[in-house]
Write a structure and sequence with these properties.
Elements lengths: L17 H26 L7 H39 L7 H26 L1
Helix pairs in contact: 1-2, 1-3, 2-3
């Protein structure tokens, strides 16, 4: 199925602002990952009984969360620019099945790592 070409230069190619909503959703997701990462890195301060290597290992899920948040926000911006450029020229749309799968995998890793950090602090 092809998209119809934009007929008039003043015509709005995306009247529903789907690209903007998707971009904002990716930004919220990235900020959520970063916030959880900051929490997990901060939580490792209270794990002094694990020693330096234990604290570094416990901080890895937080660092992963921070890095994932940054990548998600950057990727969301790039995809938004690509979608807007495609909408302006009548090009094909942008889909993100691999990005969604990668975010789900990162969310699982951060969640399991965060759980381990919290359990390590409890004992």
């Amino acid at each position: 199925m092809t998209r119809p070409a934009v007929g008039h230069p003043d015509e709005i190619p995306d009247p529903g602002l789907q690209s903007e909503r998707t971009y904002l959703a990716w930004q919220r997701t990235g900020l959520s990952f970063a916030a959880v990462g900051v929490f997990l890195v901060h939580a490792t301060r209270h794990l002094g009984h694990l020693g330096l290597l234990g604290r570094l290992g416990a901080g890895l899920p937080g660092i992963l969360g921070l890095a994932t948040g940054a990548v998600i926000m950057l990727r969301g911006l790039l995809r938004y620019r690509q979608a807007v450029a495609g909408a302006g020229t009548g090009g094909p749309g942008v889909s993100a099945p691999t990005a969604v799968g990668a975010v789900a995998a990162a969310a699982s890793l951060v969640a399991v790592g965060g759980l381990l950090v919290l359990l390590a602090g409890a004992f």
